[in-house]
Design a protein that fits this description.
By secondary structure, this protein is of the alpha/beta class. It has six helices and 13 strands. The strands form two sheets. A seven-stranded mixed beta sheet has the order 1-2-3-4-5-6-7, covered by helices on one side. It has a six-stranded mixed beta sheet with strand order 8-9-10-11-12-13.
Amino acid sequence: MKPYEIIKDIFIVGGPDITDSRDGCVYLIHLGELILIDTGAGWSIEKIIGNIKKLGLDPKNLSKIILTHCHIDHIGGVPELKKRFEPKLYIHKLDAPPLENGDRIQTAATWYQTTFPPTPVDVKLNLTEEALTIGEQKIVCLHTPGHTPGSICIYLDRDGKRVLFAQDLHGPLLEEFGSNLKDWDRSTTRLLDLNADILCEGHFGIFKTKKDVKNYILSYRRQYGVE
């Protein structure tokens, strides 16, 4: 599968069907400057950069990386991207320590038989809801704990549609990750209330109608016994 535009100025540039089977999905927002949501597991950075170029965009304009949580399949590309393009790195403060400490367990690096080098975080999100404003566009970061203590979801309204980036809302919910079912219940309820038109998920791709988004979230709520 090739990278493509999901809706005006929002693209998928990486993921298990695009770059490497170990990658979580990597999304790109073009607002003059470029913003990446997650970076894949780290083995396919050249492909991700190549995909940005294939879209006619310049990776040198990468200004921000927003990480949805601290797991290697979403953060593994950070060190190389930081080295090449010096973007600011954003993550919730509760998920920042595993990156800064290079914690193999909390980053799930052990699941992939790899390591993650201690990496400084530029901006630690710490509110229930925080908005980044770029030009006239607001990008809203929501603290949605459950999968990890510092998991976030991101949404923006673009071209008449509400686009939700909810990586790994499907879990898994595991003790070693600091997962919490009660938090996850509250977080997914909050996501349902957003009434998003498009869901950009972490491993299972893109859902393009309100009905599909709602049904996807509800299916996992039933699976975890909170519906």
